[in-house]
Amino acid sequence: MPATATESNTLTGQTIRWKFEDSPTAGGSYEHTFNEDGSVSFSMLKDGKAGQKKGTPTRVDKYASFAVAPEVQMVSYLSPESGFTLTVAMNFETKKIYGFASNEKEWHPVAGTMEIVK
């Protein structure tokens, strides 16, 4: 019998800042807000600083997240602007993130750190 995927909603209402150290966006910081309606909004931060967002936040209508372990959440979404799918595992204990960004032509491993904003 196949396993059933059960999504987690533990990210709902949280804003989490990701700083990528290893990826095509190395050095970039992004704030992600996981909304009650199942959407996620994200913004690149100017010079990595909170409150200094570059441009209008991008809204993605649907994201999925799963609890991989008590301290690890995996989240994935497809960005409508870039066409990239971003899948990231967040370790809330170590504050490390690891994942993959891909589209039909490119694939990149990503790594960095995370900070809970709210």
- Which band does the percent of strand residues land in? over 45%
Report the sheet with the most strands, covering strand number, pairing sense and barrel closure.
9 strands, antiparallel
CATH architecture: Beta Barrel
Question: How far is it from the N-terminal to the C-terminal residue, by CA?
Answer: 39 Å
Helix content estimate: under 10%
Number of strands: 9
Might you state the CATH topology name? Lipocalin
Mean pLDDT: 87
Order of SSEs, N→C?
EEEEEEEEE
Supply the number of structural domains. Answer: 1
Catalogue the unreliable spans.
none
Quickly give the structural class.
mainly beta
CATH superfamily: Calycin beta-barrel core domain
Which strands sit side by side, in order, in the main sheet? 4-3-2-1-9-8-7-6-5
Shape label: globular
- Output the number of helix runs: 0
Task: Provide the gyration radius in Å.
Answer: 14 Å
Question: What is the secondary structure topology, with strand pairs?
Answer:
Blueprint: E1 15-22, E2 29-34, E3 40-45, E4 53-60, E5 64-69, E6 72-78, E7 85-91, E8 96-102, E9 107-116
Antiparallel strand pairs: 1-2, 1-9, 2-3, 3-4, 5-6, 6-7, 7-8, 8-9
Describe this structure in words.
With 118 residues, the chain is mainly β. The protein has a single domain (15-116), classed as Calycin beta-barrel core domain (Lipocalin, Beta Barrel). Helix content is 0%, strand content 55%. The protein has no helices and 9 strands. It has strands at 15-22, 29-34, 40-45, 53-60, 64-69, 72-78, 85-91, 96-102, 107-116. It has a 9-stranded antiparallel beta sheet, with no helix packed on it. A hairpin with a 6-residue loop joins strand 6 (72-78) and strand 7 (85-91). It is globular and about 30 Å long. The mean pLDDT is 87.
